[in-house]
Amino acid sequence: MGNRLKNNLSLKLLALFLALALWGYVRYTQTSWAHQINSQEIVQVPLSVENVGQDLVVLEVPKVVSLNVRGRPEVLDKIKAEDFAAYLDLRGKGEGPYNLSAEVKVPKDVKLEEVPKVQVLLDVVRSKEFDIKVRTINSLPDGKMLAGLDVKPKAVTVTGPKSYMDEIKSVEVTANLSNAEYTMITKSLAVPLNKESLPIEKLICSPKFITVEVKVLTQSVALTLPVKPVITGEPPAGYEVKEVIVYPTVVTMTFKTKPDNNYEFVDTKAIDISGKRSTFSMDTGLILPPGGTVLENKTVLVKVVLKKIKK
User: Fold this and answer.
1) Residue 68, φ and ψ in degrees, nearest 5
2) pLDDT tens digit string along 49-93?
3) How confident is the model at residue 21 (pLDDT cuts 50, 70, 90)?
4) CA torsion angle for 20, 25, 27, 32 (degrees, to 10)?
5) CATH fold label, 40-123
6) Neighbour-count burial for 37-65, b at 16+ CB within 10 Å, e otherwise
7) Of 103, 132, 137, 270, which is the most buried if we count CB atoms within 10 A?
8) Residues 6+ apart with CB under 8 A from 89
9) Which residues, 6+ apart, have CB-to-CB distance to 238 below 8 Å?
10) Strand partners of residue 231
11) Percent of the chain at pLDDT above 90?
């Protein structure tokens, strides 16, 4: 029997060596491959939508989806989000919420572990006409009065998702009065507002900008006061002032705001009677209170009657 074992010993040893080598190779490579394909990574990929029906709009859909992918480490180390594609096919979908499987494209040698599910909401697009309202902010400068507001056009067409359109309370433009020294024409953005007076997004106004005319008048206070002639100097000896006549006897002034003082009369400029021996008349100006303006009768006629004193 010993002789039988010794027969072809070298061949038997070679076969044993080859068997051990093959076993080692298979064990090593299989273990390495198993390790490599078990590598996983989460990739954030932009999500797009396609084939949205006419008169429909997508209200709620995530901007990205998370993809759980598997591949060899050297492959996963090189991939980028741009190498993937993810989209929702909304062909044939009507108004309402959906839970859809995303269509995903992955690079070569990368396996997608699970197709992601995506919640999406579709709404119907509607249009409606609304009258424009003007919201004023701040106050007019002192002495100015708001005479009226005019808008062109007076209405706009608002378009958007039906659920958002139902929230509209008003469509407004804003007019800032703080710099309106005179009648002002400006362009203002039309904004749809809800019942809390907050802007509603996802709505489009046509036209987008509205012309607003802020009509401004000068706010004035009219004050009518008697005219008081102011006489200075003395006539020569033997003469006296018998009478002073003024025409008109009263004058009307306007003020941008109500005067601070309670004025009782308006003085003329001084009329000097020094050396005068006979009655005379002259036009003279007025000393107006601060802020006062006279549109007419900026001067008055003053007649000074002088008389010789009888001895």
Assistant:
1) -95, 110
2) 999 998 999 998 999 999 999 988 888 888 888 999 999 999 999
3) low
4) 160
5) RNA Polymerase Alpha Subunit; Chain A, domain 2 (2.170.120)
6) eeeeeebebebebeeeeeebbeeebeeeb
7) 132
8) 50, 51, 103
9) 308, 309
10) 271
11) 59
Task: Pull the structure tokens for residue 70.
Answer: 């598997």
| Matching residue, tokens 């100015």 | 144
Q: Is the pLDDT of residue 34 over 60?
A: no
Inter-residue contact 233 to 274 (CB < 8 Å): yes
Token pair for 149: 């507001």
Structure tokens at 114: 């699970």
- C-alpha distances out from residue 42 to 24, 68, 226, Å: 34, 5, 93
Confidence band (pLDDT; 50, 70, 90) for 209? very high
Class of domain 125-218: mainly beta
Full strand arrangement of the beta sheet holding 144-152: 144-152, 209-218, 184-189
Tokens of 283: 């036009």
Torsion of CA 245, 249, 253, 258, to 10 degrees: 110
221-308 under CATH 2.170.120.40, yes or no: yes
If you average pLDDT over residues 239-245, what whole number do you get? 93
* Measured torsion, CA atoms of residues 36, 42, 47, 50, in degrees rounded to the nearest 10: 40
